């Protein structure tokens, strides 16, 4: 597949005789933002480490932009920018010097690229201070800049919003979304913050105990098919829905609930209105990602 | 590759290791040269007090020795090669008399050589270790190894650039050691003494002197020779430290391990000099300068070429293992 | 700043210095390459004299062995009170039945000046003139009475002592020669009883021995008996409990090397 920027197949990793990643496969297409969710110790960081060549897979294949990470490390890594477990920089140098140093390790990174990256993460004012005096959030920003200076096609970010304030998280989200939209950069982001994944990602992969247990688009994952009506006579509506649409609605105060195929919803509403009901509220109820997450990883103990 | 090396040199400079090393060196050298100067002056006083003469007369002593040597040189029974060595000593003493230099005065040229001779087994390796120990281990302990190894550069290139940067800094450090010892001791002694002649290239071994090989060279050349040996030893120590730095996680343990090896090695040599294996240990072979000054062998069967070979084997082995380990190592920090 | 000034400076000077050091290093190897041959020659030098003085050794004669000098000559530390002379004689007797006797006129603690005046006094001229082999051990006390603690004075004092010693030795040897022109003389070199504790003093001792040897070399009838190496590697075995004088084994070793060189 041409559009596949990252292709992972059957990845396994054994650390100290213990199988920690038990066969992970997924794909990321160009311009896609994929969330990587999982409870503590589920293997997110371990997987991402293998994706950026920090540790070697026990089995399985990783291809980045069509280059095997194992056989063509340099070509593959030229397309990757990453932050793995926190932004660790040389704190005896200024942020700018850090970027210069890292930039000089990739081909064709100019001063302009560095300045652009700095402007993008909004660090122009403090860029010449020593990293040692930066706050956590400032380091995160430089961390992101460092991942962007060589114009990668794939960003791999492990918990990138740790330590950012709400304003920072919002800015960060906008930056990542813009990158994906305007420069067609693919992003793989792991996070604790479910809301953040929900707001930022196109797709989500949920990993637990070294296995991907669910992988789908955000919308598909969240739609439950449950619809809630608030109307004047729930009892009568219940029987109409039973008879005409073969559903099994339940009544809960003035709420009427039923599992409905979303294609049928408008038909049902028309019928209800035609029958003279006074409908004040209809909601196609979505699960929160949190509900899903908890449901899927219920039996988890670290 | 040049950019990588430049980066590594920059990191080493920015880490402020050099000021620390320089500070250590300055303190040490100042104390030593002050002490030596003090002892020398005390001795002259003592000598004068004891001999009762008004002033210490080095010229008299030297002239006496010179006339003695000349007499001996004219003795026809003396074998030719012995005569050659006597003639060299005559030449040397003549220089001192002609230039009005007391041969036993401490000079900067003598001090920097004896500093190198004494420091080559422990102090200089320690300075190198301070420089080299955190080369790799620090990247691990500070976790910066992650941003370094996720660039589009193969791992071996990264380690190679680090090694070359280390060699560059080691070379500069050896030069700085020579410069500091010379300048500081000049402040105390007020004598350069670099053009004084010195006899080298012989072994005074059980009294036999192979004078075919002795040569009379000015002190600055001799200093250069000694510091070339120091440089070689420093590079060996740097290579071995690199290996330790690749294997352990913190620079403190890297320095600790190297110091333990150096001191332990001296112990081994001291207690077990009969044991054949000791002479294959790198620490036993560090003291290369003694081969140039013609002093004793610590363990039978050791020579300059032997020591250089052993040290080279250690260094090459260390570098090879460093590269293998670094290439394979999983970064789990 | 870094890219434009410091970096070119660093790499440039490192390059120049490396060239300098590499060439210096090569020169050192070349110089000490001779060093190596010097050392192998020194190892061989124990064997070279073996054949040489043998010609000077008259196989006949019933005359004595005379031991002159200090405590080492006297045999201090030897459990069997034999000393070098007796032990040497025993070695000879193994080969052939000679009825030789040993006269030992060594005085423990003797310095070279004292021996010189002893010889000058003509007191022992008779013994000297009748001896076939004269074993001389002197100089150890001269050197040992130097205060070896203090490095800077040491060089001065050492040079002085060495000069006096050389004068005395030259005098003693020429005196003995004039009394007895035919005797074989064996001068025992110094060993370093402190080599374990104070290896830094080795160069002094070596120079001392070297000077002794230069003087000894001036006459074919003089033989220099090296002990430095012998003792250096066997200090524990060869020293008596006072950690200064040889024990029986040590004296035996000296006698053996004397025997090898003379025969
Ligand atoms: N260096 C290591 N040695 C041994 N086991 C390790 C090591 N690193 C991680 N593990 C194990 O691998 C598993 C996955 O760890 P990982 O760091 O990938 O979790 P994570 O999903 O990133 O968790 P978190 O959300 O807490 O960051 C854990 O059970 C952990 O114990
Ligand atoms: Mg993690």
Automatic annotation (TrEMBL), chain A:
Belongs to the ABC transporter superfamily. This is ABC-2 type transport system ATP-binding protein. PANTHER family: ABC TRANSPORTER, ATP-BINDING PROTEIN (PTHR43335:SF4). Gene3D superfamilies: P-loop containing nucleotide triphosphate hydrolases. It comes from Alkalibacterium subtropicum. Residues 6-234 form the ABC transporter domain. Keywords: ATP-binding, Nucleotide-binding, Transport. One of its GO terms (molecular function) is ATP hydrolysis activity.
Automatic annotation (TrEMBL), chain B:
This is ABC-2 type transport system permease protein. The chain crosses the membrane at residues 119-136, 163-189, 224-248, 255-272, 306-326. Keywords: Membrane, Transmembrane, Transmembrane helix. GO terms for molecular function: ABC-type transporter activity. The keyword DNA repair does not apply. GO terms for cellular component: plasma membrane. Pfam families: ABC2_membrane_2. The keyword Nucleotide-binding does not apply. It comes from the Bacteria.
TrEMBL record, chain C:
It comes from the Bacteria. Residues 67-253 form the SGNH hydrolase-type esterase domain. Signal peptide: none annotated. It comes from Alkalibacterium subtropicum. InterPro entries: Ester_Hydrolysis_Enzymes, SGNH_hydro, SGNH_hydro_sf. Gene3D superfamilies: SGNH hydrolase. Residues 42-58 have a biased composition (Acidic residues). The keyword rRNA processing does not apply. Residues 38-60 are annotated as: Disordered. The chain crosses the membrane at residues 7-31. This is Lysophospholipase L1. Keywords: Membrane, Transmembrane, Transmembrane helix. GO terms for molecular function: phosphatidylcholine lysophospholipase activity.
């Amino acid at each position: 597949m041409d559009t596949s920027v990252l292709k992972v197949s059957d990845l396994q990793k054994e650390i100290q005789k213990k199988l920690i990643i038990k066969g992970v496969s997924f794909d990321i297409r160009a311009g896609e933002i994929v969330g990587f969710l999982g409870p503590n110790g589920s293997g997110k960081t371990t997987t991402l480490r293998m994706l950026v060549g920090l540790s070697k897979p026990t089995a399985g294949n990783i291809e980045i932009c069509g280059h095997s990470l194992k056989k063509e490390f340099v070509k593959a890594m030229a397309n990757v920018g990453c932050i793995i477990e926190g932004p660790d920089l040389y704190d005896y140098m200024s942020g700018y010097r850090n970027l210069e140093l890292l930039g000089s390790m990739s081909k064709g990174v100019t001063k302009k690229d560095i300045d652009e990256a700095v402007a993008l993460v909004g660090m122009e004012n403090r860029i010449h201070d020593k990293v040692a005096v930066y706050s956590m959030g400032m380091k995160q920003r430089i961390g992101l800049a460092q991942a962007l200076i060589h114009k990668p096609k794939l960003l791999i970010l492990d918990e990138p919003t740790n330590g950012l304030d709400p304003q920072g998280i919002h800015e960060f989200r906008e930056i990542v979304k813009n990158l994906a939209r305007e420069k067609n950069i693919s992003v793989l982001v792991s996070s604790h913050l479910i809301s953040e994944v929900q707001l930022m990602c196109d797709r989500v992969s949920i990993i637990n105990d070294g296995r991907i247990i669910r992988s789908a688009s955000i919308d598909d994952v969240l739609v439950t098919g449950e619809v809630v009506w608030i109307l004047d006579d729930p009892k009568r509506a219940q029987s109409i829905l039973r008879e005409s649409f073969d559903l099994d609605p339940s009544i809960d105060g003035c709420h009427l609930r039923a599992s409905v195929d979303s294609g049928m919803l408008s038909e049902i509403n028309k019928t209800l209105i035609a029958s003279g009901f006074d409908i004040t509220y209809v909601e196609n109820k979505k699960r929160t990602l949190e509900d899903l997450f908890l449901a899927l990883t219920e039996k988890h103990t670290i | 590759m040049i950019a990588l090396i430049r980066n590594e040199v920059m990191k080493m400079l920015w880490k402020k290791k050099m000021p620390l090393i320089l500070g250590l060196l300055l303190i040490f050298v100042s104390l030593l040269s002050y002490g030596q100067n003090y002892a020398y002056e005390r001795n002259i006083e003592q000598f004068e007090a004891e001999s009762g003469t008004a002033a210490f007369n080095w010229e008299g002593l030297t002239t006496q020795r010179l006339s003695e040597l000349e007499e001996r040189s004219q003795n026809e029974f003396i074998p030719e090669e012995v005569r050659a060595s006597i003639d060299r000593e005559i030449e040397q003493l003549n220089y001192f008399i002609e230039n009005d230099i007391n041969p036993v005065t401490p000079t900067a040229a003598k001090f920097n050589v004896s500093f190198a001779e004494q420091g080559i087994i422990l102090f200089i390796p320690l300075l190198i270790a301070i420089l080299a120990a955190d080369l790799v281990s620090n990247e691990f302990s500070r976790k910066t190894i992650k941003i370094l190894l996720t660039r589009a550069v193969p791992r071996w290139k990264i380690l190679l650039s680090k090694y070359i940067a280390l060699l560059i800094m080691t070379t500069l450090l050896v030069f700085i050691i020579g410069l500091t010892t010379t300048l500081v001791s000049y402040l105390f002694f007020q004598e350069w003494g670099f053009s004084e002649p010195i006899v080298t290239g012989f072994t005074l071994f059980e009294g036999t002197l192979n004078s075919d090989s002795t040569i009379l060279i000015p002190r600055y050349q001799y200093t250069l020779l000694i510091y070339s040996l120091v440089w070689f030893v420093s590079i060996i120590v740097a290579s071995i430290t690199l290996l330790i730095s690749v294997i352990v996680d913190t620079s403190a343990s890297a320095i600790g391990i190297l110091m333990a090896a150096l001191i332990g090695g001296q112990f081994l040599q001291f207690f077990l000099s009969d044991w054949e294996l000791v002479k294959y240990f790198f620490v036993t072979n560090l003291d290369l300068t003694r081969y140039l000054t013609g002093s004793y062998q610590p363990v039978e069967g050791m020579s300059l070429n032997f020591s250089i070979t052993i040290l080279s084997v250690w260094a090459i082995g260390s570098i090879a293992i460093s590269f293998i380990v670094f290439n394979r190592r999983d970064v789990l920090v | 700043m870094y890219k434009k000034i410091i970096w070119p400076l660093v790499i440039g000077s490192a390059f120049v210095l490396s060239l300098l050091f590499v060439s210096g290093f090569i020169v050192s190897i070349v110089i000490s390459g001779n060093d190596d041959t010097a050392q192998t020659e020194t190892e061989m030098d124990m064997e070279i004299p073996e054949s040489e003085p043998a010609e000077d050794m008259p196989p006949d004669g019933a005359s004595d062995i005379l031991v002159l000098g200090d405590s080492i000559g006297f045999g201090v530390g030897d459990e069997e009170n034999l000393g070098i002379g007796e032990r040497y004689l025993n070695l000879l007797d193994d080969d052939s039945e000679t009825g030789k006797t040993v006269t030992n006129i060594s005085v423990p603690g003797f310095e070279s000046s004292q021996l010189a005046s002893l010889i000058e006094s003509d007191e022992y001229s008779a013994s000297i003139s009748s001896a076939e082999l004269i074993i001389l051990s002197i100089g150890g006390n001269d050197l040992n009475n130097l205060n070896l603690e203090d490095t800077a004075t040491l060089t001065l004092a050492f040079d002085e002592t060495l000069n006096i010693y050389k004068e005395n030795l030259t005098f003693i040897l020429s005196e003995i020669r004039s009394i007895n022109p035919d005797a074989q003389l064996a001068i025992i070199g110094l060993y370093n009883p402190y080599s374990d504790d104070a290896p830094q003093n080795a160069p002094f001792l070596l120079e001392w021995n070297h000077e002794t040897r230069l003087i000894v070399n001036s006459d074919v009838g003089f033989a220099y008996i090296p002990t430095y190496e012998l003792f250096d590697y066997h200090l524990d075995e060869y020293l008596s409990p006072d950690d200064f004088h040889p024990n029986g084994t040590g004296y035996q070793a000296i006698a053996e090397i004397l025997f090898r060189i003379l025969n």
